[in-house]
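To whoever is on call:

I kicked off a structure prediction for a single chain this morning and the downstream step that reads the tokens threw a length-mismatch warning. I double-checked the sequence; it's 337 residues and nothing unusual in it as far as I can see. Pasting both halves so you can look.
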Amino acid sequence: MKPGGARRAIGAAALEVGAVGLGCMPMSWAYTGSRRRGEESLRTVHAALDQGCTLLDTADMYGPFTNELLLGRVLKERRADAFVSTKVGLLVGEQHIVANGRPGYVKRACDASLRRLQTDTIDLYQLHRADPEVPVEETWGAMAELVGAGKVRSLGLCAVGARAGRRAGRDGLHAGTIRQLERIQQVFPVSSVMAELSVWSPEALTALLPWCTARGVGFLAAMPLGNGFLTGTLTPGEGFEPDDVRARHPRFTAEMTAANQPIVAGLRRVAARHGDDVTPAQVALAWVLAQGRNVVPVPGAKHERWARENARAAELCLTEADLADIARLPAAQGSWD
């Protein structure tokens, strides 16, 4: 079996995907622009598919639009090998991002995504953010009509932003998302929820993941490598280019990068038990996989090497001792406000 070929099911319809997905955003958006290479990105997507990482996660806002166009070049050749996930609901302006959940817009945006992706059907269509000016039931209803029209196979919801939740306190981190889920579940079944989950951001384990597990909803773990920090490949104090989202991330200041090194050190210790070729990143992904059979980590990658390394995490079985040691690691430091 291919490294990432172990299968996991998403939603009540049991749509199967590889155990590890591929987040395509870094190829076109949010991370250092000077290090983006179109041909290398294409090789990365092909490598992920070769390794059995079938879930390709993108969004119309990434670029904007250029990430879907990139994936379309691969899907034109390998549509049968891929499970295509894209998102709708956010518009990118010059200096701002706004939500748009109007039903007419959702339907037009879907048609545009289908054209860019060079496919007839989107496997998972996710609502990126609910529009505060439109009842979420109306937006979700329009998305459900796309399923009825055969343009989309299943629907998912992205969790409300982390900063808003943290201001509400740890207990309220995902309360807003759960309220949305309860509402839209009455309109059309939710197949998946995407939210941050990693060794240094485990908050979803408290309420959101249990909500999903109890209802047979898939959980797509965003940022399972902590925006790259948990890979152990970042140089403390190196900094980031201004267009890199981590340049403004409260956990990537020089002070916090140094303070959080014990987390990476702990992952290295666990990795060493499993062999010289096992990496902290693979341990971090294996930890996410261990949180439930409905959990699929979606690490971002823009280099073929990392896509192959991430896929092999599906073969790594952490022991109870490993999981206990990871549980004892210090909580990540860094203010979110």
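Update from on-call: the warning came from a stale cache, not from the record. Cleared it. Sanity check on the structure: Residues 3 and 312 are 5 Å apart (CA to CA).
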